[in-house]
Design brief:
The chain is mainly α. The chain has 5 helices and 5 strands; from the N terminus they run ααββαβββαα. Strands 3-4-5 form a 3-stranded antiparallel β-sheet, covered by helices on one side. Strands 1-2 form a two-stranded antiparallel sheet. Helix 1 crosses helix 3 and helix 3 packs across helix 4.
Length: 139
């Protein structure tokens, strides 16, 4: 299994990892649903669908790589469509370490799409990734 690189000590995750994992997940969506991801907001419908399809009565059945790749796909949409850029996440006290990546939007706001993916898996449709994008872009 591919281990997602996590920030440790002074070493930080290369922001390019976000785009690479997004591409891997885009290929998975193409294989599963026959949909070609073009990194537009409408692609989030397929991300939501995959979360729904991977949910059972026992919870989300995807692994850590799947969750982080889904988060990177969400982030890559914010990058390509909304003008954001990947950045190594600033360490925040009490914040979970979700691979050490965030997307910085043109409005200066830093958001964590990988955390949004974990939230969607944990809380179900109440934590919509479509809504995450809308809130992230609100000034």
């Amino acid at each position: 299994m591919f281990r997602f690189p996590r920030a440790t000590g002074r070493r930080r995750t290369d922001p390019a990892v976000g785009s690479l994992l997004a591409g891997a997940m885009a290929g998975g969506i193409r294989d599963i649903y026959g949909h070609t991801v073009t990194y537009v907001p409408e692609d989030l419908v397929y991300v939501e669908r995959l979360f729904t399809d991977l949910r059972t009565d026992d919870g989300f059945v995807g692994d850590e790589f799947t969750l982080q790749s889904l988060g990177c796909l969400i982030g890559e949409i914010l990058v390509r469509t909304d003008g954001g850029h990947w950045s190594a996440a600033a360490r925040r006290r009490g914040a979970p370490d979700d691979a050490g990546l965030e997307v910085v939007l043109p409005n200066g706001r830093a958001v964590n799409p990988i955390r949004a993916a974990y939230d969607r898996a944990d809380r179900g449709a109440d934590s919509s990734v479509i809504r995450f994008r809308q809130v992230a872009l609100a000034s």
